[in-house]
Amino acid sequence: MTGSAPEAPLLRIDTLTKTFGGFVALDHINVEIRKGERFGLIGPNGSGKTTLVNCISGALRPNKGAVTFAGENITPLPANQRSHRGIARSFQIPRPFRSMTVLENLMVALDFATHGHLFETASHRRDAAMSILTRIGLAPKAQSATTSLTQVELRKMELARAMATGPKLLISDEAMAGLSTSEVDEVLDLLLSLGGEDIAIIMIEHIMQAVMRFSERVMCLDAGKVIAIGPPSEVMANPRVQEAYLGT
Amino acid sequence: MFSIELLRDAVVLGVLLGCFYAAVSVGLSISFGLLDVPQVAHPAFLVLASYAVYWLNDSYEIDPLLAGLIISPVFFVLGMITYRIYHVTFEKRGSDAGVRGIAFFFGVAFIVEVLIILQFGVDQQSVSASYIGKAWSFGDLRIPVRQLVAFGVALVLTGGLAAYLSKTFMGRAIRAVAQDEEGLRLMGANPVRIKQVAFGIATAVLGLAGALLIIVAPVDPTLDRVYIGRTFCVVVMAGLGSISGTLLASIILGVAESIVLTMFGASWAPAISFTLLLAVLAVRPQGLLGR
Amino acid sequence: MQRSSIVFWLGAAIFLVAMLLMTQFIRNEYPFFAGYVILQYVVLSVAWTILGGYAGYVNFGTNAFFGVGVYTAVLLAQAFSAPLSIQILVAAVMGALLGLGVGLLTLRMRGIFFSIATIAVAIVIETAVTNWRYVGGAAGIQLQRPPVTEPFDSYVKMLFFVQAVLVVVAIVVARFIQNSRMGRGLHALRDDELAAECTGVPTLRLKLMACVISGALMSAGGAPAAMYLQFANPDSAFNLNYSVSVLAMSLIGGTANWIGPVLGAVLLASTQQFLTVTISSEVNVLVLGVMLVLFVVAAPKGIVGLVSRFAGKGKHA
To answer: How many structural domains are present in chain A?
Structure first.
């Protein structure tokens, strides 16, 4: 959406740098994401995509730079507080709560989504969780153990759990990896339906058709640096991007 | 009265002691530092080794250092078996494995301690050898020969292990599996087998280290408790997985203990390594030369 | 109130009444000596499970909290002739502070560092107490029991009932946490701490709370031991066997539910009493260690897990 009114960005990343010992994972990254934007993030393995996600969601602290969300500097905040402010993510390898059912997984998100008394007992949030599961298509599996889910169901549950926190920014980290073509479409349709004016979505993927269909803008990382950012067709045609992928 | 000579003596003895601590801790540097196994039973195995050395020395008059070498292969096998059990039972499973893994080694440590008590009793035991009981003079400083022996053997042991890890194929494979297990698997190597060998080596080292332990001072079955503090203090201070850091950290610990011992007496000795450990955890948990 | 709650409170009331009646009608002192120890282990194990079972952070330093409870009681008795109830209350506060200190120091790190730090704290405190002459140092200190109050006719019987009350307190607290939002948060962070944190669970805060509550209960459970033994010395008050025993009882009983540590403590403490008297205290510890390893390897969910597997029951109490 090329609007003329410059609304403050939802997420702003300033000169974000993250090193592990001598290895530079992120090198002075600058990017802004608008409210409700559909943003694709691509790059070869090891280019720093998940590290960037970790720095945004709070799993990692950067060495330099700042993360600003809805006008607030969230760099010093722990991950759970960023979740309360509206940042949600799924994990590259799904991390369900293994000893809980699918419904209980979502209940955790709903239990802690708002600040309240820490000692409240269970309540009507069950209904809210069920409605999310219905929307995602996992309602029949609500009482199932997470260990009984198929891969695509696990990915959907991850996204459902992330949605249950009521986010303004959802980060989907390679939710389609390893899935069949029809399963990829399932997840893609799901992500398209989840987004909207209120929820910005960052999609990290290697499946280029999905990225093209989904994104309004795409950013490509390579070795911790931004090598291209813009409309999907432009970025895909960028020779540096093509070289980065073919070169690995 | 506190004097410079006293301080100097304390520092020298502390350095000797420190190198000994390095030999004792280097196995943990591998099993916990590199392989991420919560090997709380490491000091218990150490004490077990020293009792095995005692038995060989007492029953067959075998020199303690030789005895240490003799039992090393046995401890290598012990290490491999222990890792196998740990891996099959805990490393493969998902949640809760961390708690149970730690509890497992805690239980093993206790079983070892009690078995030693049942077999040997609670009293202290020591070994005899030609170099125990003598002392050499360096100017006005008298150092017991057994400390020098321990110092020398410890240096060789630690240096040898460091060389093994950096120069040999298996040694480098061990360091590789610690950094990137997935990558190693993709290259066709079997990370579980490598880790098993590594754990075996880490435990085998305890054979000789146990000999040094009983050479340096008499042992008793509860010695593993204070050595949990010493070994983990060294490994954490060194930074997980750093062998060269282990030597430096051990010397720091040895000197600190020696000075406190000289200034405040022996009743505060057990707490030093633990206090240092807590301080490191609080201030710089990645250690001095972290991975 | 829910039906399970009514059953629970009824059960707790019946338990307390039964314990009280026991003290009134049983003449022989021995059941109360042995019973006190068993009840004490129930308190310690339930308290341990709040952090170890619910959150998955293994506290090896139970002996530190127990010893702090004992010596707080000793200090208050020596310096102020404080009554037992005050000794227990202040011990709980000290245990809470210790839990807070250890927690702040290490709960930001991986579980193994927390566990090692608890050992470290135990030894440091034990060493400090050993060097503290006012409470007797290494040799220890004798304690004088004040006259026993109505309706008890012996001090041991009163201590027995006090521990019974502490058992109920500990279980009420554990059960409350287990069924609360805090309990669900601890459960989530035990399953996957990173996922829990990113799902909005304030993991550090919950861990600290569990550590503080657990510590307070453990020290409270240890406080009456000073009067029970009429003697305290660092070696026995900070004995590592407390750590191993409580760890074993909780893990063998089962950690997801408060019933686990209760079962484990009752079963194992009774066995311990029997073994120590008939065989030896070393064999006692050996059996405990072996059972701990066996259960940890073969029956990860403990006795509670085995029972629910065979009976197909649910987990709620």
So the answer is: 1
